[in-house]
Design goal:
Helix content: 25-40%
Order of helices and strands: EHEEEEHEHHEHHHEEEEE
Number of domains: 2
Low-confidence stretches: 1-11, 106-121, 180-188
Largest sheet: 6 strands, antiparallel
Radius of gyration: 22 Å
Strand content: 25-35%
Structural class: alpha+beta
Length: 254
């Protein structure tokens, strides 16, 4: 009989890390495969799919034990859990970080509030972030991070949605006029200097696996609720998109 006390083999201590995502299992598998391929320490790794909604990650060099990735689908947000050896905490964090904005960090509180997430007919800031801005015509010009959605859920009084969409449309138009010759370029620069003013004390967010400083702000007033919605955003140099990273509700000045 095999007695565990007669061996010096280390007994793995398992841990679990939870995230939320809008990705499917196939998208997660592609993202994880790209993350493994990009790092030398994960050479000779492979991914198996032993059962529905579950992936197994095995690496001879980068991991002490198998990592199980489980996806729990839902109507609004999917829960993703990484079950791993306690010694592989940094490695799993590295894989998750490589997926960038596709995963919302440590989302247990967000999952607990999952039943209250806005649906496609809700009139809230988070609804705009999750649905409207991810559709035409905004999807080609604007990206919304998980931190923006989560902070938008706390903006419960502000409701001037049409004014916000008009303001975002204006920002998109200003960016477009910057490339025009002559008077268009001059007007575009004047408007851009005001619309894309850089604030010295700025929030940060994570976008595509990198820390991004949200240098710019957009303020939209709602006289009915006497509040102002402040959007913190950045400009992505590669995609030329506006990256919305945070939203907050502040009182309307008298």
């Amino acid at each position: 009989m095999y007695h565990i006390e007669n061996t010096t083999a280390r007994i793995p201590a398992r841990r679990s890390r939870e995230y939320t995502t809008l990705m499917t299992l196939a998208q997660l598998r592609t993202g994880v495969a790209e993350a493994l391929a990009a790092k030398d320490e994960f050479a000779y790794s492979y991914i198996a799919e032993p059962e529905p909604n579950k992936l197994s990650i095995v690496s001879n060099l980068g991991l002490h034990a198998e990592v199980s990735l489980k996806l729990r689908p839902s109507k609004k947000l999917n829960l993703v859990s990484f079950e791993h050896d306690v010694e592989d905490k940094s490695a799993v964090e590295s894989i998750a970080d490589s997926l960038g904005d596709a995963l919302a960090m440590e989302a247990k509180e967000w999952i607990r509030r999952g039943d209250r997430l806005p649906d496609k007919h809700a009139n809230t800031v988070a609804h705009l972030f999750m649905h409207v801005l991810r559709d035409e015509p905004f999807v080609d010009f604007i990206e919304v991070t998980p931190t923006a959605i989560e902070s938008g859920m706390t903006c419960r009084n502000w409701s001037a949605n049409e004014a916000l969409l008009d303001q975002l449309g204006l920002l998109m138009d200003i960016k477009a006029t910057q490339g025009l010759p002559g008077l268009g370029m001059l007007l575009g620069k004047i408007c851009a200097d005001k619309a894309f003013k850089a604030y010295p004390h700025s929030r940060k967010t994570t976008h595509q696996g990198k820390h991004v400083k949200l240098l710019h702000r957009c303020h939209v007033e709602d006289h009915q609720s006497q509040t102002v919605l402040c959007l913190h955003f950045a400009q992505d140099a590669q995609s030329d998109k506006l990256v919305i990273g945070w939203a907050e509700e502040i009182p309307l000045a008298a």
